[in-house]
Amino acid sequence: MNFLSLWGDARKAVRQGRPGIERRQQQRLAEAIAHARTHSRFYRELYDGLPDQISDPRLLPVTDKRHLMARFDDWVSDPDVTLEQARAFADDPALVGAQFRDTYLLTTTSGTTGNVAIFLNDRHTLAVAAALAIRAIVGSNGLTPGIVLKALIKGGRTVKIAGTGGHFAVAAAEMAQQRAHQRRGKPQLSHTVLLSTLYKREQPVLRYDLGDSILRRPDPCPCGSPFMAIRLQGRSASVLTFTTENAERVTIVPLALATAVERTSGVELFQLGFGGLHQHRL
User: Fold this and answer.
1) Which distant-in-sequence residues (6+ apart) come within 8 Å of 141 by Cβ?
2) Does position 169 have pLDDT exceeding 70, yes or no?
3) Buried residues in 247-269 as b, exposed as e (16+ CB within 10 A)
4) d(Cα 279, Cα 277) in Å, to the nearest integer?
5) In percent, how much of the chain has pLDDT > 70?
6) Which pLDDT score, from 0 to 100, does residue 129 have?
7) How confident is the model at residue 276 (pLDDT cuts 50, 70, 90)?
8) How far is CA 275 from CA 18, 61, 256, 279, in A?
C-alpha cells in the first residue's frame, strides 16, 4: 500500500470506531507473528511451542533491547544485514539520514539505560508512520485533507508558533486540560510499556519492553477518539552528582554521559561504578 492508501485506511478505521480498529489489530497481529516466525530466526525460536494461531498478545513472551541486540543478526528479517555493518554505519555521523544498504533509514536509541539499540526502517514502515502522523494531525487540529495536500505539494513544511508564560491561547488550553484531568480523578501510572508495531516486517518488534511509564486518563478523551488517552511520563533516571576537589557539588543527567560513551565505536553496554568520593570506574 502506498502513502495515500495507508492514510485513507487510517481515516476509515477511525470512522468505523472500535470494531473497525480491533478488526485491523487482530488481522495485523496475526500477520506480524506469522512474518516474524517465517523470516526472523530469533522469533522462530522464541515462539517455538506456542499455538499456531495467537489472538491475545499477552501469550507472547516479552522482549527487550538487550536480548534483541544480542541476537541482532537473527532478529532482522533481511539475511544480508549484519550487526557489524549496521554498527559501522551508525558510528559515522556523516551518514545520519542516509540510506543504509540503499534500503533502510537506520536509527538508534539514546542509550540512557546503558544499552544502545539499532533499528531499521524500510519504505513501508516510513509510509505507515507518515500516514498515521498525518491522520493524527488532521484529526486533532481541524485540518482538512485539502490543506494537508497543499502542504505536501509545497514540500510538507509546516510551522507552529505558540506563546507561553502567560494567559495565551495555547498555554491556557494546556493548563485547562491539566486542571480538568485533576478534577476527573487520579490517572493510572504504568510500571512500563510493552510495544508491538504491527507493520514492521524488516525488524519485527513484538511485546518490546520500552522501560517508559505512561499516565492513563481515567475517562474517555474529549476528542472522541476510541483509543486509550495517555500522557507520556518518560523514563525515570537518577541525576548523577559528583564532588570536585574544592568540595563543590556538580550534577549531570545520565544522557550526557550516555551520549559521550556511545560515540565510542563498538560500545553497546556501559556501567558507571563508584569506588569512593573521588573514584569512579566506567
Assistant:
1) none
2) no
3) eeeeeeebeebbeebbeeeeebe
4) 6
5) 72
6) 86
7) low
8) 55, 37, 21, 5
The residues facing 278 across adjacent strands are none
How large is the average pLDDT for residues 24-33?
Answer: 94
Grid coordinates of 194? 510493552
Which grid coordinates belong to 162? 505558540
Cα–Cα dist 53/45, whole Å: 16
What is the full DSSP assignment across the chain?
Answer: --HHHHHHHHHHHHHHHHHHHHHHHHHHHHHHHHHHHHH-HHHHHHTTTS-SS---GGGSPPB-HHHHHHTHHHHSS-TT--HHHHHHHHT-GGGTTSEETTTEEEEE---TTSB--EEEE-HHHHHHHHHHHHHHHHHHH---HHHHHHHHHTTS--------SSS-HHHHHHHHHHHHHHHH-PPEEPS--EEEETT--SS-EEEEE---EEEEPSS--TT--SSPPEEEEE---PPEEEE-TTS-EEEE-HHHHHHHHTTSTT--B---EEEETTEEE-
pTM higher than 0.85: no
C-alpha cell at 93: 555521523
Distance (Å, rounded) from C-alpha 217 to C-alpha 19? 21
**Residue ranges covered by each domain of the chain:** 3-155, 240-281
The cell numbers describing 84, all together, are 557489524
